[in-house]
Fold:
Amino acid sequence: MYGLVNKAIEDLALSIGGEPVWQAIIARSGLDVVSFVSLDSYDDEITYRLVEAASAELGLTPEQVLEGFGEHWVRYTGRAGYGPLMGSFGSDVGSFLHNLDSLHARVTLLMPQMRPPSFTVEELGPDRFVVHYRSVRQGLGPMVTGLLRGIGALFDREVTVTRLARAEDGADHDVFELSVGAAVTADAPADTSVSV
Structure:
């Protein structure tokens, strides 16, 4: 994975407990790293070790860490300079979902070693979707649950995500049902906090 992913994990750790939490995660992971470079490619095992270490350090399951990270990822990449790019791939949750593969294709121009996932989207009705997620990487379905909620927050919409099929349980790929609720108003702000 690219360093941008590992830097986002660092950013999440810093937002939870500051530098002490991040240093504890690094120490627990056994990685000898000072910092990650966003556009450098790193072995996937490094990212998995960071997730496992964060899980142990925070007293959460790896699935909970991945779900919280998925939600955080949308905000982080927007702040890390990819916000305008993301904004060009949809003006609402539905159009953004339909353009996820196109977004990844564009990002691959900047990160040629990236092995992006694939998303296929079916519309069930107004603001209801089934999202099929395929990846060469195993075990990242919980991250997609958080990512889909994060996409809702990107457009100030409440989103409910149900995971219908799980690759780790033997399914060919992960499948999610997504329901987009009402726009979040100033009186009822979205809960965009990370659940870790």
Summary: The two ends are 22 Å apart (CA to CA). The chain is about 50% helix and 15% strand. The helical segments are 3-29, 44-58, 62-87, 93-98, 100-110, 141-154.
